Each structure stands twice: as C-alpha cells, then as structure tokens.
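Quarterly update from the structural biology core.
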Amino acid sequence: MKRLEGWDIRLLDFIAIRQREPFKWGKRENDCCSFANGAAMAVTGKDIMKDVRNYRSEAGAARALVEAGVSSFEELVDRLLPAQPVAFARRGDLALAQKGNETVLTVVEGDFLIGPDLDGLMRLPRSAAVKSWQVGNIGLPLAPASEADAVPVLNESADEDNHNERGGV
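Predicted structure, tokenized:
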C-alpha cells in the first residue's frame, strides 16, 4: 500500500474537518478507530477497516471486534498494518498512545499524536506513543523520524566532503 500523491494535504483537510467534531461511536463517526481509518483513507485511499461491521456504541464496537476475530483495536490494527518502532513513526502513521489510564488510537502529526476527544480533537505529545504502525510506504528508507518529521538526515560522509571542499581539515 502506497501513500497517494498529495496525501499530506488530504490528511490536513481530514483533520480540519474533524477538528471540532465531538467523540461519537461508529464506523463512520469520530471514535479513535473511525478517526484512524479516515486518516489512513486520506493518506492511501484505502479503507483499511472495510471488513469491520458498523457499530453505534462502545458495546457495539466490542462486538464488531469480536466478529473480526480480535479482542482489541490494537490487535485489529496489528492485522491491518505493519507495526514499526515508535521512533520510526512519521506523519500520517497510526500510534497507540497512553492518555491517563486509557489507551487510545491516534494519528501521528509531527511532534504530536492526534485523536478524537469529547469536544473535538486532542493532541498528545509523541512521548505518549507506546506502539506505532506504518500507513503506506512513502518511498524513504526506514529511519527514525526527525522532530519535524519531514527533514531527511544528511549522511555524515557527504557533510564531511562538503566541509573539506570549503577548506576544512
């Protein structure tokens, strides 16, 4: 699964639409699974949770997970996307985060994790992430993400060559 051209603009548009939308249970609503799926659709064009039936309550979501053959949304996402070290998570990837004594599914947005909350979207620090999954391949080599999440790291030998060309030792 690849990221679509212009995925970053589509992701920003998706987040802007959901910004003030309150938490609501449902596959096409604004709970953590539907938000994560909507973000993945914005990035890749694929409905990664297409086989999960609709639900309208916490109990309904639990039943939908059981019917999908899993016991948690973490296990569901494990089946749908490749897990990766949290340090490798890039903008648009999904992350499991700790919020107090709750575990929530979020979307990586630079230095923050974003997901639905009672009155709209919440932002958590990246340090709250305990697990992450890659959403689409962006064609870059796997390496830990920078703080800005978009700036590639120059290799040291190239930097050394440039230093020597400028008259360095």
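The longest helix spans residues 32-44.
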